[in-house]
Amino acid sequence: MKPSNREEPPAAENSRATKRKHSLKSKQFDRRNKHAKRQRLTVSETLTISETETQTTFTLKPDPSRNPPTSNRFEPIRSSRKRNKTRKRRKSSATDECHRQWTFSSRDYSNFKDKFVVVSYNILGVENALKHPDLYMDVPPEFLEWERRKRLIREEIKRYNASILCFQAVFCSFPQEVDRFDDLDYLLRKDGFKGVYKARTGDARDGCAIFWKDKLFTLLHQENVEFQKFGLRHNVAQFCVLKVCRVLIWYHMKQNLPEPEICEQTSVTTLSRSQSLVVGNTHVLFNPNRGDIKLGQVRLYLEKAYKLSQEWGKIPVLLAGDLNSSPQSAIYQFLASSELDVQQHDRRYMSRQVEFSSNCRDFKFQNGCRNRGWMSISKPLIYGWSDEELRLATGSKQVTQLQHQLKLHSAYFGIPGSHKTRDNNGEPLATSYHSKFMGTVDYIWHTEELLPVRVLETLPIDILKGSAGLPCESWGSDHLALVCELAFVNNGDQT
Dihedral through CA 191, CA 266, CA 316, CA 280, nearest 10? Predict the structure, then answer.
């Protein structure tokens, strides 16, 4: 077709077409403008939320639909950066100190001037970590290194402003290596502590250690029990009789001040008479099937504590340790109630560790079994014990009814806590966590001459389950320290 033969549109048609084109553009521009206004309105409204809810990031998200409702055009979504950080925190982290909170007694202790903080802590023996890698499969190797862990343990103890420390699984010297107790002793002396150590008998290299603040307590007496002498394996217990120093600073040195300034700026009590107490520390046999040996060790532990208390003027008793028994166990019942009929219990389940360790990753299993231990305690069923098992458990093959003379109270039971960290008995849900176990085996017990002022809650179960196990980035052991502040009853009237 030749160009000269092409028909040109009339001028009027050109004008109408141009107007239609401009009108269409104008309408599209108006729609975009209105849409933009809605965007600005919605974003400005969400900015107020994001300022207060810092964990949520509001991001503009295109919607494929042509005319979606305004309320659905912008959805709150988590930024990938924050999501990654959250994953890392969950992986690392039974960790943040903010997850361990103090819980206080409902009683007013303002007039009780003689208070002290005690810590019971299984610090994970070096040899245990090396010999049982199956317990720490998901734990990065650097988290198991002693040099790193001892630094974390020391920093943790400083945060608690502790007065008395009861450590379990403290390893003594290896050939050509630094003695672990000397290692800890050196560091803790810098922080004002003195300590004593008792190693296990036999080939094992770990033991127990008690430390106390030198300015607050004086060691009057030290004594140990070697269970092997009674045919009860190579575990040990240690005891210290501590006397409160003449001047006790009421919840001491909350500010890091020189001693003269402390006396001027904090409450100080000059004791009218001497305050002393028995401090016991032990690490009971692990073997879940040997309830007879476990019970025998606990029995001797309590007997020695009572004897020392009587010898030193019926003074208060404080007992700490890793008892390798759950709060649902017969051993726990013996401590709490002062009596036990051993024939109502199978020695293989005296500590209730088996049912708790068999499915540690699913903590609902443990919660479901919370009351079963106590239910089995009241069963009339009679179990058969051999003469040798009775002798180990009770001290005589003729004895089936056990009693002890200490009226003991659990420090954590004495101060009710949250369901997130406590079981139905009032004890922590978990004081230990590794690849094959999550549960409670550590305790602080005291006689009625001492009262719990506050306790430090353990980590919530969801935090523990979100981690790879203990130790981790912020905690230096596969156990969590139990921490309690106690007050002497007999000076509550002092002002």
Answer: -10
* Max Cα-Cα span within the chain: 130
339 and 487, same domain (yes or no): yes
CB atoms inside a 10 Å sphere around CB 488: 22
CATH number of the domain bearing residue 437? 3.60.10.10
Residues 343 and 379 in one domain: yes
Classified as helix, coil or strand, 262 is helix
Sign of the torsion formed by the C-alpha atoms of 154, 158, 160 and 163: positive
* Domain of 60, in residue numbers: 13-77
More confident residue, 185 or 36: 185
Asked whether residue 73 carries a pLDDT value surpassing 80, the answer given is: no
Q: Are residues 141 and 268 in the same domain?
A: yes
Confidence grade of residue 260 (pLDDT, cut at 50, 70, 90): very low
Instruction: Flag whether 7 is in a domain.
Output: no
**Could you tell me if 156 and 294 lie in one domain?**
yes
Q: How confident is the model at residue 54 (pLDDT cuts 50, 70, 90)?
A: very low
Q: Do residue 69 and residue 123 come from a single domain?
A: no
Of 485, 478, 486, 484, nearest to 153 by C-alpha is 478
C-alpha closest to that of 338 among 258, 407, 410, 249: 407
**Helices 330-337, 291-311: inter-axial angle, 10-degree rounding:** 20
> How far is C-alpha 35 from the geometric centre of its chain's CA atoms?
54
3-class SS string, 285-347: CCCCCCHHHHHHHHHHHHHHHHHHHHHCCCCCEEEEEECCCCCCCHHHHHHHHCEEEHHHCCH
